[in-house]
Amino acid sequence: MKYTFLIVLILSLATLTSAQEKRYFDSPFGAGGGFSPSWIVPNFSELNSKLQGFGVPELGSSGFFASGGTGFVYLSFIPNLRIGGIGFGGTTNSSAFKDGYEREIIYSSNFGGLTLEYSIPISRDFAISLGAIIGGSDTKIELFRNKSTFQWNDLWQEISDTSLSASSFSRQISKTSFLVAPTLNIDIPLYRFISFRVGAGYAFTFGENWKVDNDKEIFNTPSTLKGDAFFIQTGIFFGFFAY
To answer: In whole angstroms, what separates CA 242 from the centre of its chain?
Structure first.
């Protein structure tokens, strides 16, 4: 998936360069911000290989919904370049009832950072924007196995008495990473005050190790277990857009 996306980016860059030679109107300017519904598609293969033993169905390979916001401003002294910020995140889960216990995995992914985009108007109706998100990501995996009801005193007894075999179990695994995500978007302005967007990107994450519970480091984690993800991005922005 990520290699296909990179090829599309390269081809789009060539198209943008050609479009500059027959520009339909002056360089865009303005600023705006708004809601950015997205769809995140992580690689769950490593995680799903462990879920059968845990007793829940696999996490869906099609991804999950994410919500967030975006804001940007055109830099008038550099034609077609705009700078801004973005943040979005979402959650998916899988659960089952087995051997008298409720079991559940919750997977959360959040991205955010600075956006840099080079936007070229192709016609008066839309523009293509090639850019990147530079920032950070937070990935969290939560695992639960428990009964459907709890008693207050029993909770503290389980925690305090190490000789007891606890019937309830939970783990929180997390990873915070540096993020670089190349993006390709199509922007469609409407009446200069509203703009619509649709596009895609691929999040590459770097650094930091996986940690469990109260930030205890996990050793020997598989190299394929990352916070990387393909994502589809949409949006509706309000502001002033002069294409």
So the answer is: 29
Between CA 116 and CA 126, with CA 120 as vertex, the angle to 5 degrees is 110
Q: Where are the alpha helices (DSSP H) in the chain?
A: 2-20, 45-54, 152-160
Copy the structure tokens of residue 224. Answer: 């394929």
Q: How many CB atoms lie within 10 A of CB 36?
A: 20
What is the model's pTM? 0.84
What domains lie within the chain, and their CATH numbers?
Answer: 2-146+169-242 (2.40.160.20)
The C-alpha atoms of residue 23 and residue 56 are separated, in whole angstroms, by 55
47-101 residue pLDDT tens = 999 998 999 999 999 999 999 999 999 887 788 899 999 999 999 999 999 988 9
Tracing tokens 């996490």 back to the chain, one arrives at: 59
